Amino acid sequence: MSEIDWNVELRKIERAYDGLPPEPSPNAVRARKAAEERARQRVAERLALVGAWARLVLVAALAVSLYWWPGAHDCGRDLAAFLGAESMVVVGGVWAAVATWRHRLPASHGAALILLIAGLGLVAAQVLPRAGYATVAGVHASGWRCDAVAATALP
User: Which has the least CB within 10 A, 40, 63, 86, 121?
Assistant: First the structure.
């Protein structure tokens, strides 16, 4: 009995006759698949990095734009809208922090935590004086509703 697998040998001869390169070895196939997987991982890492920084830029833009809030935010609906916008900075900070943690991006995660803490500070600057716990420079300790402000302003 011969040890030669004539079916395999015939396939090699047919490939050579057709002008095709020889079939790659199992090690070469494994190496090619590993290289393709590494390339996919690099693309995924780059997309995660771009996505994380895009989230951070959006949340930072919202936090900075609160400085130029178009209306008064002393009481009532205006205050509720302003606190809602400040709360969105907190939510956006959490959103960015979770995404950066999930994708293992330490610098972006630190920036997301800074934005989260800044958002909490913005909310605290409006809530704490009205709750009577602290006074913040530039924020008058007025009530939550506008009729309470008018009643306290009278002598």
Answer: 40
Cα-based angle 68, 139, 74 (whole degrees, multiple of 5): 70
Looking at residue 132, what is its pLDDT? 77
pTM for the predicted model, two decimal places: 0.71
Helix H or strand E encompassing 127: helix 106-131
H or E element in which residue 55 lies? helix 26-65
CB 81 within 8 A of CB 126: no
| CA end-to-end span of the chain | 116
Largest Cα separation within the chain, whole Å, is 116
> What confidence score (pLDDT) does residue 9 get?
84
CA dihedral 78, 80, 81, 86 (to 10 degrees): 120
